[in-house]
Specification:
This protein is an all-alpha fold. About 70% of the residues lie in helices and about 0% in strands. The protein has eight helices and no strands.
């Protein structure tokens, strides 16, 4: 009986195709190569190591069924992981982030009108951000939380230049929404 020796497991695309065909060793090699990076992406989004590990495990489960169909395994795995982490955030309910430049609570006794206006501004800005398409919404929340573009890029698992473009587009869309709501952008 002749024993077949598998080809070297070096190319991610080849590994993905072989894993999609059911080859366990190929899937394990992809897991070995990319699990740590996927975990870092999930950790940046979730900020909790246990939840990050859960998100990565769920991402591997989701990826397992379609791994053989992707052309670029690593970016695809990172996207699946980031999306799973974002789903986990949505399921647990996100704590609203502060809106930069607007105090969270004005002293209503000192100036009740200013307190009401600040609260209305926070609601309007949060509502406008919530209405942004998902990739831009996440970037906008992170920028409002005080993250620099490079931190936004790391948290979203994208290139720094892509984060800057995403933030620019998010600001433009947000400005249009705020202008439509009667606020000066």
């Amino acid at each position: 009986m002749t024993r077949t020796i598998p080809a070297p497991l070096t190319d991610d695309h080849d590994l993905a195709a072989r894993a999609g065909a059911g080859e366990r060793a190929a899937f394990e090699e992809l897991h070995r190569r990319h699990h740590a990076r996927m975990r870092r992406v999930a950790l940046r989004v979730l900020r909790d190591p246990h939840e990050a590990e859960d998100a990565v495990q769920e991402a591997w489960i989701r990826a397992g069924a379609r791994i053989g169909t992707c052309d670029e395994p690593l970016p695809w795995l990172i996207t699946v992981t980031r999306n799973e982490a974002l789903r986990m955030l949505q399921r647990r309910g996100r704590t609203p982030l502060p809106v930069a430049g607007v105090p969270e609570r004005a002293d209503d006794r000192a100036d009740p009108v200013a307190g009401a206006e600040a609260a209305e501004t926070r609601r309007t800005v949060r509502s406008a951000i919530a209405a942004l398409p998902s990739p831009y919404r996440e970037a906008a929340w992170r920028e409002l939380a005080g993250q620099r573009p490079t931190e936004v890029a790391d948290a979203l698992g994208i290139a720094s230049g892509a984060a800057r473009v995403r933030l620019h587009r998010a600001r433009r869309m947000l400005g249009e929404r705020l202008e439509a709501a009667g606020m000066a952008a």
